[in-house]
Amino acid sequence: MTWIRIVVTLALAVLPGSASAQAPTSPHTHGSAESPDRERPAPLPGGSIYQVGTTWTDMDGKPVPLRSLRGKPVALAMVYTSCTTACPLTVADLKRIEAALSPEAQARVSFALFSFDSERDRPEVLKKFASAHGLDPARWRLYHGDRAAVRDLAMALGIRYKRDARGDFDHSNVISILDSQGVVRHQQVGLGQDPAASAARLESLAR
Amino acid sequence: MRIPLAVTAAAAVMMAMSGAAADRAAPNMALVPAGQQQPFFVTRGSTGSPAAEADRGPAIEVPAFLMDRVPVTRRHFAEFVRARAEWRRSQVPSTLADSHYLEDWASDLDAGNSVPADAPVTRVSWFAASAYCRWKGRELPTVDQWERAAAGAGKDTPATREKILQWYSRPGSDPLRAVGQDVPNAYGLHDLHGLIWEWTLDFNSTLVSTETRDPGAKDDPLFCGSGSQGAVDPNDYATFMRYALRNSLRASYTTGTLGFRCAQDTEKP
Fold it and tell me: Which domains does chain B show, CATH number per domain?
C-alpha cells in the first residue's frame, strides 16, 4: 500500500487546493508540483470513488492518479475501444449528454472514458479512438489502466464485467455522474437512454 | 467408490500433517493442482437458446495455485489493521467499506472476545479483503480458483450438495467457531463450506440478466454483446446459491457471514 500513499501524496501535491479548510501558508506555490505537504486540500469525502486510489495513463501517455480528477464534475463510463456493439452507443449517449449542457456547464465539466481492456487499449489506441469519435480533447479524457486498477474502479462504481476467451468484455452499461469530489450523484443504466436526467444533474453540479 | 476413498485417504494424511503446528507453518497454503473447471454459467450462443448439455462450452483451464488452508482469522486481520491504519474501523471511507465494517469488534484494534480470535474475520468488504491479501503479497482467489478448490471437496456428489445446502439454509446466527476444525478436503483446505461465505477477486464477473428467466428476450439494456449467461447444471443448486450471492454483492458490503482467504499463483509473474 505504500505506492498508494505515494500516489496520494503526489495527487495532493499537484491538485489545485480546492479547499480552504486549512489556509495555505504560501499562496504563491498554490497548485504547483513543489507544494509543501502542509498545504493540503480538504479531505476527500468518504463516499468519493477517488478513495480507491488507482493510477491510470491518459491518451497522451501521462500518468494520472484517479484523485486528480477531483475539482470538476465528471461524466464517466467504462468501455473498450474494440467493442463494436455497446461501447460506441455509450459514447454516443455521453455526447448527447454533452450536447444537452449549456456552454457554461460544458466548460466546467469533464467526460472520462476508462478502458476495461488493459492489453489492447494502449494510450495511442485511445487517442485514435478519441479523434475518430470527434471527442474534444479539452473536455474528454480517455484512460488506460492495469487489470487491478480496472477491477478496483469497476468495483467502486458497481460495474460487472467479464473478459471472454477472445479478449472481449461483457459488461454493465452505466454512465456515472460524479460531483467535483468524485461522489456518484446519478447513474444512467442501459444504452440509448434519455440524456435529460444525467444532463440536468451535471448542469446543476457545474453551477 | 474409488473417489471417496481417495478423498478419505488424502484427508487422513492431511489430518495427520496438520494440527496446530503445521497450520501455523509459513506459508500455510495448500497447492491446488492445475485442472479444468467447468464454468457454472456459460454465455449463450448467437441463437439465444438456453445452454444445452451438448453446448456447455469449453471447460476453463485453471493453472496450479496456492490457497490459504483456512479463512483469514480475526487475529490475523487485527495484525493488518494495526499495520495499516487506513483500514481501521474508524478510518475506512464509505466507498471502501459500509458502516457495518468490523462493527462486532470491541474497538479499532481489538477484535474482542465475543467469538474466538481464531474464528474467521467477517464484516469485511471486498476492498478490505483485497487489501489484506495484497499486504500479504497475495490476491483474493478468482471465482474459477475458488470453485476449483471447492471441487476438491467432492462438490459434485449429491451427498455433499445436500450437506452444503443444509448449511446454506441455516440463518447464519450461530456464533462463529475457530477455523480449521473440520475435515480438510482433498487439497488440504478447511472450511470452504459450513462456516462462512468467501469473497472472490472477480465476484462481479457474473452477468446474469433477466434473460435467464426469459430466453426469448433480447437486448437487455444492462449488458454489452453476448452478456447474458445461462446455468450449465440447474441441479447444482449449491453452486447456484454461491453465484446468486456473488451477483447480489457490492464491493463495499459487509456481513456477519462473509469472510475471505487469499490465494497466490505458483509462478510469480
Answer: 2-265 (3.90.1580)
Checking DSSP bridges between strand B65-68 and strand B29-32, what pairing results, if any? antiparallel
The predicted model scores a pTM of 0.79
Inter-chain residue contact B251 with A169, CB threshold 8 Å: no
CA distance B261 to B263: 7
Smallest CA-to-CA distance from B80 within B111, B48, B49, B41 is with: B111
**How many CB atoms sit inside 10 A of residue A125's CB?**
18
Chain A interface test: which of B42, B56, B89, B95 (most A C-beta within 10 Å): B95
The rounded distance, in Å, linking the Cα atoms of B35 and B202 is 19
Q: A154 and B227 in contact by Cβ < 8 A? A: no
Give the C-alpha separation, A207 to B259, whole Å: 43
C-alpha cell at B35: 485442472
pLDDT tens-digit map of B61-101: 899 999 999 999 999 999 999 999 999 999 999 999 999 99
In sequence order, which residues have a C-beta less than 8 Å from that of residue B96 and are 6 or more positions away?
Answer: A51, A52, B125, B127, B128, B252
